[in-house]
Amino acid sequence: MRTERAGIDPSDGPAFEAPRPHPPDRFAHDPALGRVADRLETLGAGARGPHVALVQRALVDLGYRLSRDGVDGAWGTETTHALERFQRDFELAPTGRLDAETLATLARLAPPPGQSVERNPEWDRLTEDGRIDLTIAHGFYDEEEGRLLSWSTGRLVAGLFDLGFQPIDPDRMTEGDRDRLGLGPERYEPGASYFVRTVPSGPGGRPVDVVVAFVSPESADSPEGVRDQLVRALGRDEAVVYMGHARYGTGPDFDAIDSGRGNFVVDRTGGPLGHPHAPLSDSIAAAPRSMLPRVSAPPDGYQVLYFQACTTENYLPSLRDARIFPGRDRANTDVIGTTIPMRIATAPLHVLGFVSMLCEGRSVGAFVDEANERERAYIRSLLDAGIPPAQLDGVDEARARGALFESGFADNAANRVR
């Protein structure tokens, strides 16, 4: 994530039914797609034409947005990434190419032409016990000798107050209140800060307590201790947010960049676009306790994960990989991540937008679209201020329109067709 700070100002429809074929097939009369269906060829990067536009429109209608290029009939990187997410969501090989099996699945799931799917979390599963337990873990910012970290954490806490949250101290609460808010020994982290908001008519139409545990580099006596607070949240809470640096695509970090003590490594290599630099790479290699295999999914639960850092798209597929996270799959873990190097200045506002989504039962798509527009406007403000594009890591307005994405929500029972 990056450090620029200036310029930030902070419906109902029919229920989505189980996917089934929609006659007539929106792809039935296209000869190029017919060759794909007959297993004579596949389609991928570089393809052009009306058949590509048909595939793009089906992806967009299912919620796989093409924010930068749109439905333009030209198969570029954005279309490849959208198709990879679709393939992962429905347990197909994530090749980014359209083969017969992917085309058949797309034809079966896409809503009728002219309609689209509104994506939502599994609200009933999130609120089954009358609460949403949410951990927000703020990583370490090296910039400006810690002043930027203080600014960011302060902005986030102030935003929680603005959203109607109240601070609570579990040590001063009755046992009954602690039980009601899920702050018994199994969840209580002594160094965390806690906030609660009671939503009288929450998602699902019943009262819901949204209980936030806020974890930062100061929440434990050591970087390893803070990292382990995130580890425990991933195995326990209905929703977990990480905001901070991605450390060359390796994952969350709760201390300085040249130390591996606070690193929570999702991918040792940094993913397809990452490259962990020494001495960080050496520190990570010497710290096997930072590896993910010791983390499992919440017992009998459902979880929404949001990783607000630079290009978390590189490693987020691992967060639903049962070989790494035992017990996780697309049915119990939905994720929101980023496709570009993100700005620190907008991070608290994006996270607060996610919290608002949980409180108000708003769609995932609405949250992602608003965050993307916020990121686009901020990039525009930096360019207008004369900051050279090279200093923005190659991010322009077009790329910022697709800054956030969601994955795993496509099969949720709470989705709607509009």
Rg over CA atoms: 21 Å
Q: Fraction of residues in helices? A: 25-40%
What's the overall average pLDDT, rounded?
86
Instruction: Calculate the terminal CA-CA distance, rounded to whole Å.
Output: 35 Å
Write the element-wise H/E pattern from the N-terminal end onward. Answer: HHHHEHEHEHEEHEHEEHHHEE
How many helical stretches?
12
Output the strand order for the largest sheet: 3-4-5-2-6-7-8-9
What composes the largest sheet?
8 strands, mixed
Query: Using DSSP, what is the number of strands?
Result: 10
* Portion in beta strands: 5-15%
Global outline: globular
Structure, explained:
- The protein has 418 residues and is an alpha/beta fold.
- It has 2 domains: 31-110, Muramoyl-pentapeptide Carboxypeptidase, domain 1, CATH 1.10.101; 123-417.
- The chain is built from 12 helices and 10 strands.
- It has helices spanning 31-37, 50-61, 77-89, 100-109, 123-126, 147-162, 175-180, 223-234, 280-285, 347-360, 364-384, 397-400, and strands spanning 117-118, 131-138, 166-168, 193-199, 208-215, 239-243, 303-308, 333-338, 404-407, 416-417.
- A hairpin with an 8-residue loop joins strand 4 (193-199) and strand 5 (208-215).
- The longest helix has 21 residues, at 364-384.
- Mean pLDDT is 86; it is low at 3-23.
